[in-house]
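The instructor's notes for this session suggest beginning with a concrete chain rather than abstract definitions. Hand out the sequence below and ask the class to guess, before any prediction is shown, which regions might be ordered.
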Amino acid sequence: MKKYIAIAVLMLGATLANAEYVKASDLAYDCKVSSVNTAENSTILTAFQDGICLGFMNGFIQGFDGRLTVTDGKKYSIDLVDGISSGQMGRVFVLYMEKHPEMENQPATLPLIKALVDAGLLTKNLVPNTLTTKEQ
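After discussion, reveal the predicted structure:
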């Protein structure tokens, strides 16, 4: 039994080590399919692409919204506009990628950030009255 557990752990590690980032062109394709997918025309493949796009956007929202960063000794909060949905983010991303094909081979997060900033949906806000650890 221990032998099988060890093999499973090694296989999982090998799988994770080979994981690559999501390319912007791949995500844009999945989000473009997702934006026109409805219950009437949905297939197993389009449902899968919905999941890829919306899952990526939901993960971005969970991992990025409210994130704190320090620039020039000042603390900032990175915030998404209230009420934005993962579907809206996907559509904004598709429109951005159509205008910026030079970003196709980039990790999807970078053009997603640029798309959201350009659309005014992602802002950097100064957190008042804070000092960094260095200044205290």
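Then share the key points. DSSP finds five helices and three strands in the chain. Helices lie at 2-17, 24-36, 44-64, 86-99, 109-118.
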